[in-house]
Amino acid sequence: MAMPPSLSIDSLMAELNAAEIAQHPVEVHGSLVGLICGGVGQAKSEWLKPLLELINDGQLPPPSLTHLLEELYQDTLARITDVDFGFTPMAPEEEEPLAKRVEALSLWVQSFLTGLAIVQPKLNRGSRDVKEVINDLAEIAQVEFDVGDDDESEAAYIELMEFARMGALLCYAEFGPEPSEIKDQDPKVH
Fold it and tell me: pTM for the complete prediction?
């Protein structure tokens, strides 16, 4: 399932810039995914407040950005909870230089880990697999390396992107709500 055009990096960047929020869209998405995978409540007031704390010092943004964040939340939640939707971390298009995509992945992972840690106080009591994934993601977030425009570097990037995707899904499986809790809730924004 393709991401709606309203949720493209460019659309989000325009709204963030208009609201004078100095966050990259991949950081916003990473924070949101971290909150969701950490088990944040699904009512609007439960997920929006911590997201705004992370991206805008808790200040309510203009209505157009708030609406876009709600749309991003619904789209992201649908992708994480339904394997057919194909969740993936937000990233620049494949046409962008590899160095830009690697930097965006690092920002996404940093933001994901921050969002996860804020909402999930039991990270240190997670399963061994989750602890290992979180440690590996922390290393990915700090990666600084020269990226060549070659097939080997491209393959390494794809591997890191897949690892981040699977790491997020593993955290959601461990800390997210039980499937029965999701079905009991109205899928629309509360």
Answer: 0.89
